[in-house]
Write a structure and sequence with these properties.
9-stranded mixed β-sheet, about 10% strand, single chain
C-alpha cells in the first residue's frame, strides 16, 4: 500500500512539473515589451554594418510580417486539418481553392521552407514574398519596396550569411494569433524608429504618431458603426488602426454591428507598404493608396471631386513647404478659406481634410502649436490667422488640445490636436473647448508619454465638455475674436511656470511668411511702376 501511494505521489509530482515546464516555456516564448525590444535589438545587430541604421526597419519589418503570415496560416491549417482529418487533404484542397482561408501561402513561400536553407537565401526569400503577393491581391505592393537579393557595385547589399542570421533570430518566436499582440508590427516599428531613426530628422518622425496620442485621437473621434474613416497622410497606418481598435473595444467584436471602412493615402513607398501590412494583419476593410495627397488626391468621386468621409484623422508633416501654385491652381476647390503661406502647409492640410468631410463629419489633426497662434496680435494681415478666423467664425472649431512636449520622435516641440466638427451638438454651438494637457505626462526614455490615466481624463473632458481648473476652459467665438483668433490653450488655461514665449520654430515660420509677403508686395509695386514707365 505504501509503495503504491509513493508511486502515485511521484506521478502527480511529475505531472505538476510537466505542466509547470509547459507554462514556463510558454511564458518565455511570449513577447512582452522587454522581450520584444531585446529580440529586435538582436535582429538589428545581425545586419549592422551592411545596412545603415535608419534602414534596419526596411528589412526587419517585412520579415516580421512574413513570419506573422506564416504562423497565422499554419494555425489555420492545423484547425482545418482537425475538421478534414489530415493536413495532406487540406493542402490539396487549398491548392485548388483558397476560399477556406483568409490568405494563402504556397509551400515554398512559408517561413519554415525559407529558414531551412543555407544558400541562395536572398533569391529564395525574394521569390517567396513575390509569390505571396501574386497569390493574394490584397497584399499587392507590400513587399515590393525591398529586394533581399539586391546588389550594389556588383556586391550583395545584404549577404546570405547576414540574412540567415537575421532569419534565425526572427524565427525564435511564434507570431500566431494567440501568440502575440495584434499590434506586433506597430510595436516593432515604434521601437526601431525610436532606437535607430532618431537624429535622421523629418524622415524618421514625419509619418509616425506616438501610440498614446493616436489612442487619444481615436477616443475623441469615437467612430460609430458603418463610419468611413480617412487619413490623407497615413504613414504606417497607426491612426487608422487605433480607430479600428477603439471600435473593437467599444463593440466587443460584435458581428451584428456594421464594421468600419478605412481609407488612406501615403506618399512614401516604404510606409505605404507598412500601412497595407498593418491593415491586413488587423483584418481591416481598408483601401490604402500610394501618392501625393496634396497634389494628386487618390480618393475622388466618379465626377472627379473630393470623396467625403465620416471621420478624418491625420498627423501631416508640420510646416511643410508647398508652392503657391498648389493652392492657386487646385482643381478640387479645397482651399476656399484662403491660401496658406508656402513655408507652412498646416492650414492647407486642414482645408484638404475639411473638404473630405461629409455634412456630419468630424476630424482631428495633429500639428505644431504655431498652427493655432501664428499671426495673432501682429499688425497687418496674416494668412494663417485669416484662415483660422474663417474656421472660427463659421463655428467649425470644436476643440484644441495642447500636448506635452517631447512626445514626438522627430521634435521636442509639444504639438496640438485640433478638432473640427461640421455638426456640433447644440450645447457646443459658438463655443470652443481648449485643453491644456502640457503637464499630464510621465517621463520616459528617451521620450515622454501620456499615461493611460491622462488619456482617460482628457477623453472625459472632451466627451463631457467639461471645464476643469488648470486644465480646460470653454470660450465663446467672441472671446476668440478678442484675442485675435489665437486658440492656443496655454493663453486661456495658464499653468504655473508656463512660458508663453514664441518658440524658435514658429518665429522662423513667421519670419519666412513675412519675407514672402514682402516679396509679393515688391512684385506688385514693380508691375505698377512698369505700367507707369518708371521702372
Amino acid at each position: 500500500m505504501h509503495s503504491w501511494y509513493y508511486y502515485y505521489i511521484c506521478m502527480i509530482k511529475k505531472q505538476i512539473e510537466s505542466v509547470r515546464n509547459k507554462i514556463m516555456n510558454s511564458y518565455q516564448n511570449k513577447l512582452d515589451i522587454k522581450a520584444l525590444e531585446t529580440w529586435l535589438w538582436e535582429a538589428a545587430c545581425k545586419i549592422r554594418g551592411p545596412i545603415d541604421a535608419p534602414k534596419y526597419k526596411d528589412y526587419i519589418l517585412p520579415l516580421i510580417f512574413f513570419k506573422r503570415l506564416s504562423d497565422v496560416f499554419d494555425d489555420e491549417l492545423d484547425k482545418l486539418s482537425q475538421d478534414f482529418g489530415s493536413k495532406e487533404i487540406v493542402e490539396k484542397l487549398l491548392n485548388q481553392d483558397h476560399k477556406s482561408v483568409r490568405f494563402y501561402l504556397p509551400k515554398n513561400a512559408r517561413w519554415d521552407a525559407i529558414a531551412k536553407h543555407t544558400t541562395n537565401i536572398g533569391e529564395r526569400l525574394t521569390d517567396a514574398v513575390r509569390s505571396i503577393e501574386r497569390e493574394n491581391p490584397k497584399l499587392q505592393g507590400v513587399f515590393n519596396t525591398v529586394d533581399f537579393n539586391a546588389t550594389a557595385s556588383g556586391q550583395r547589399i545584404l549577404a546570405d550569411d547576414n540574412l540567415k542570421d537575421l532569419i534565425d533570430v526572427l524565427g525564435r518566436y511564434r507570431l500566431g494569433l494567440n501568440d502575440v499582440d495584434a499590434d506586433i508590427l506597430g510595436r516593432a516599428y515604434e521601437y526601431l524608429l525610436r532606437k535607430f531613426a532618431e537624429g535622421s530628422g523629418q524622415s524618421a518622425g514625419e509619418f509616425y504618431t506616438p501610440g498614446e496620442v493616436a489612442i487619444l485621437m481615436s477616443h475623441i473621434l469615437d467612430p460609430e458603426p458603418g463610419d468611413e474613416v480617412y487619413d490623407p497622410c497615413c504613414g504606417s497606418g497607426g491612426l487608422l488602426i487605433k480607430c479600428f481598435l477603439r471600435f473593437k473595444e467599444k463593440y466587443n467584436s460584435d458581428t451584428s454591428i456594421e464594421p468600419l471602412k478605412f481609407f488612406g493615402q501615403e506618399v512614401l513607398a516604404s510606409t505605404f507598404s507598412m500601412a497595407k501590412m498593418n491593415a491586413f494583419i488587423h483584418d481591416m476593410e481598408a483601401e490604402i493608396k500610394l501618392g501625393d495627397t496634396m497634389n494628386r488626391p487618390a480618393f475622388l468621386t466618379q465626377q472627379g471631386s473630393i470623396e467625403k468621409f465620416d471621420i478624418v484623422t491625420a498627423n501631416p508633416m508640420w510646416n511643410q513647404n508647398f508652392s503657391q501654385t498648389v493652392y492657386e491652381n487646385d482643381p478640387y476647390n479645397r482651399f476656399t478659406f484662403g491660401y496658406p503661406p508656402s513655408n507652412s502647409s498646416d492650414w492647407g492640410w486642414i482645408q484638404h481634410m475639411y473638404a473630405s468631410l461629409n455634412d456630419k463629419g468630424k476630424m482631428a489633426v495633429v500639428l505644431d502649436t504655431g498652427a493655432v497662434s501664428r499671426g495673432s496680435g501682429n499688425a497687418g494681415s496674416n494668412r494663417e490667422r485669416n484662415i483660422r478666423k474663417e474656421f472660427v467664425e463659421k463655428d467649425l472649431v470644436e476643440a484644441v488640445l495642447l500636448l506635452p512636449e517631447n512626445l514626438f520622435y522627430n521634435t521636442n516641440a509639444p504639438g496640438i490636436i485640433i478638432v473640427i466638427n461640421k455638426a456640433k451638438p447644440a450645447e457646443r454651438k459658438n463655443k470652443i473647448l481648449l485643453i491644456n494637457a502640457s503637464r499630464l505626462y510621465e517621463k520616459g526614455r528617451p521620450k515622454n508619454f501620456l499615461p493611460d490615466s491622462s488619456i482617460e481624463q482628457l477623453t472625459n473632458i472632451y466627451l463631457n465638455w467639461e471645464e476643469v481648473e488648470g486644465i480646460s476652459k470653454i470660450i465663446s467665438k467672441d472671446e476668440a475674436a478678442k484675442n485675435d483668433y489665437n486658440l492656443s490653450p496655454s493663453r486661456y488655461v495658464a499653468q504655473n511656470g508656463e512660458d508663453d514665449t514664441l518658440d524658435l520654430e514658429d518665429a522662423i515660420v513667421q519670419l519666412k511668411e513675412a519675407d514672402e509677403e514682402r516679396n509679393q508686395a515688391d512684385e506688385k509695386l514693380r508691375k505698377i511702376l512698369e505700367e507707369l514707365g518708371v521702372w
